[in-house]
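User: I'm putting together notes for a lab meeting next week and I want to include a structural view of one of the chains we've been expressing. I don't have a solved structure, so I'd like a prediction I can at least talk through. The sequence is below, exactly as it appears in our construct file.
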Amino acid sequence: MERRIIKATLDRIEDGIAVFIVSENETSLEWPENELPDDIQEGDTVTIFIRMEKNLDETREGKKRIADKLEQLRKRNGK
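Assistant: Thanks for the context. Below is the predicted structure for the 79-residue chain, given as structure tokens.
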């Protein structure tokens, strides 16, 4: 499991999407506006905590689903 802390500033909100500018590298990060805390406004700087874990079961299922679809396409195309 990897944990990361990101500092970002809410640049703008467009069509229900909040666009943050990440302080570290000036890249943007988009997030649904309806998932923001009520008190965050454009210009506010926030700290974002991320915990990233690879989900092995879902990864296997996704790879199998893709392999099955490829096999169906091959059969349909006569290969």
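A couple of points you could mention at the meeting. Residues 56-76 form the longest helix (21 residues). The two ends are 41 Å apart (CA to CA).

User: Perfect, that's what I needed.
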